[in-house]
Amino acid sequence: MIASVSGTVAALSPDAAVVEVGGVGLLVQCTPATLARLRVGQHACLVTTLVVRETELTLYGFADADERDVFETLQSASGVGPRLAQAVLGVHSPDGVRRAVASEDLAALTKVPGIGRKGAQRIVLDLKDRIGPSASLPAAGGPDHTGADADGSAAPTPAAGAPSAAEQVRLALLGLGYTAREAEDAVVAVRDGDSDQQGADAVGVLLRRALAALRPR
After folding, report:
1. Architecture of the domain whose range is 65-155
2. Rounded Cα distance, 71 and 47, in Å
3. Which pLDDT score, from 0 to 100, does residue 187 have?
4. Is it the case that residue 164 has pLDDT exceeding 90?
5. Rounded to whole angstroms, how far apart are CA atoms 94 and 109?
6. Which of 68, 84, 97, 147 is paired with 58 by a 20 to 30 Å CA distance?
7. Hey, which residues does 28 pair with through a beta bridge?
8. Residues 6 or more apart from 161 whose CB is under 8 A from it?
9. Tell me: the pLDDT tens digits for 174-203?
């Protein structure tokens, strides 16, 4: 298995990056939040997993090992393949997935395109004892002081000096080849009251909205 790739980012698209390693460009499928951290021409290191099918080899890349582990665990649920597992992580952070499963939050899981109520129930049933505890769940019987969102995803406190989700998305759009004006207009058009949150969830949601607002290139 290819456990990681490290090299120069040669190209970016809305769902993948090309990372040049030893003169070979590897196409790596990534979530919007992971892509938002990458810049063409800059060095990147991605944790990866290689999915082998009869007719294709697909390399999936992640910001860290935790995201990869949740990706692989999701596929142990009935009816969940690599693309749907990636879609889940495109909507929720790894701990957001754990929280949704642990609390049986079907509404959070059905926010993922391709997952209906029955599919969400199956994921909860299959993964409840496999995916591990959520770091953001409150103690039993105690109040929730984590600042978690209603969809089951943790809302982390922004680090001092860290760029907002909107700024990360603007930079990601520039990396995808959009002009500064296009990137700024797209972010302004889709940002809302949650756009200053940090973390994978906020960046991923805002980037998907911004890409949908832009004309196909």
Report:
1. Orthogonal Bundle (1.10)
2. 12
3. 80
4. no
5. 12
6. 97
7. 17, 59
8. none
9. 766 777 788 788 888 877 544 444 455 567
13: Cβ contacts below 8 Å, ≥ 6 apart = 176
pLDDT given at position 136: 60
Residue ranges of alpha helices (H) inside 92-164 are 94-102, 106-109, 117-127
* Secondary structure of residue 50 in the 3-state scheme: strand
**Is residue 215 very low, low, confident or very high in pLDDT (cuts 50, 70, 90)?**
low
User: In angstroms, what is the C-alpha Rg of the chain?
Assistant: 17
Which residue has tokens 């949740």?
Answer: 70
Return d(Cα 217, Cα 198) in angstroms, integer: 28
Asked if domains 4-62 and 65-155 share a fold, the reply is no
Query: Helix, strand, or coil here: 5?
Result: strand
Residue holding tokens 């939050």?
A: 105
pTM: 0.67
Angle between helix 165-175 and helix 180-190 axes, rounded to 10 deg: 140
Cα separation, 5 vs 204, in Å, equals 22
pLDDT in tens, 15-67: 899 999 999 999 999 988 888 889 999 999 999 999 998 888 999 999 999 99
Where residue 172 falls among pLDDT bands split at 50, 70, 90?
A: confident
Instruction: Please report where in the chains the tokens 């099918």 appear, as a residue.
Output: 53
The one-letter code for the residue type at 81 is G
Q: Among candidates 164, 167, 162, 174, which has minimal Cα distance to 214?
A: 174
* CATH class of the structural domain 4-62: mainly beta
Distance CA 5, CA 28 (A): 9
